[in-house]
User: What shape does this take?
Amino acid sequence: QKDGFRFFMEKEIYEQSVVISDTLMGRLREDEVVFDELDSTLFDGINEIKLCACGTSYHSAMSASYLFERYSKIKTSLEIASEFRYREPIMTKDTLFVAISQSGETADTLETLKMAKAAGLKTLVICNVDNSSMVRVADAAILTRAGIEKGVASTKAFATQVVVFWMLSLYVAKLKGSLTKMEIAAHISTLREVPSHVKVDDEMHERIKRVSKRYLHGHGFFFIGRDIFYPLALEGALKLKEISYLHAEGYPAGEMKHGPIALADPELFTIALLPKHLHYEKSKSNVEELSARDSTICAISQIPFDKADDFIEITTCESYMLEFFEMMVVVQLLSLEISIRLGNDVDMPRNLAKSVTVE
Ligand code: M6R
Assistant: This one.
C-alpha cells in the first residue's frame, strides 16, 4: 500500500498535488468560488469568524486568519480547542464558529463545536471525513477531500485545509464585496497553479536528503517566518518534533530579538522561510541577525541567500501563496529526512495516536 515509498507520510507528501486538484474540483469558476454544500445565508449577519482546532488543524486555522482579514475584511479570531473549552469564552451571535479537523473526531474540538451550537452560534466544520461526529453536529460542512491520511504526522490534510480556507476567503470576499471580480479571478488562476507547485521535484528531494545530514544533533530548531509564513513555521516545527523527537519551535521572525536570539550559537538551527513576495527584506534582516550570532541557517527561498549555511531553492513563482505551498513541501520533506536519518519509525511516532478522541 505504500506504493514503493518508505513511509505513508512520504507517500502522502507526494500525493498532495493530486488531492489538491480534487479539493479544487468543481469549486472554481472564472471569477467566483462555489461551494455546493454551502448556503450563503450562513454568512448573513456575521461580523466575526472564530476558528477553533488542535495541532496541525490549528496551524491551518491560523493561516486562514491572515486570509480572512486580508481578503474578506472580516474580523477573525483563533482558539486552541482545549483552551476554549475551559476558559468561559464570550460568544456572540454575530460570530460564525468554524471548527477544523482532519478526522472530525478530536474530542476537544468536537466539544467546542457543541458549546458554540448550544450558545446559539452558527457553525461550520472544515473536515476530511464525511459523516464524522463534527460533520454531523455542525450546521454546515466543507470537505477537504484529502483522502485517507495514515501518517500520524499530518501533511496532505493540512495542505487541503489551507486550500479550502483560501477559497472560502474569496467566497466571503465576494459576498462582502471586499475584492473586485478581477481580483477574485486573479486569485482563482493562482489557485489553479497550486497542484503543479506542490509536485515533489526529485532533484529537490535529493538535495533535502543531503542537507538533512547537518541537522541531526543541535540543541534546538527555530522555524521562523512572518505573516502567513508564521503558521507555516509553527507547522514545520510541529512536524519535526513529532517524528524526530528534536526540540523545535515555530516563531514569528520579528520576535526573535525579544528573547530567543539569546540561544543563538552554531548548535542552534534556524530554518528560515524567506518568501520573495511577502515582507522579504524584513524577514531577511531577522535571519541576518541570527547569522551574525552564529546560528546555523537553512534558508528556503527563491532568492539566493548568501548568509545561509544551506540554501533550499524553491521554484520561481509570482505569488506569495504559491511560495507558501512550495515551502510547505520543503519543511515536510526536511522533517521526514531528518527523522529517517535518525532511524525513527516515521509513521508510528512514539507517544502519539492519529486521532485524539480523549480530552
Ligand atoms: O483530526 P484533527 O485534525 O482534529 O487532529 C488534530 C491534531 O491531533 C493533529 O493535527 C495532530 O497535531 C497531528 N498529529 C499533527 O501532525
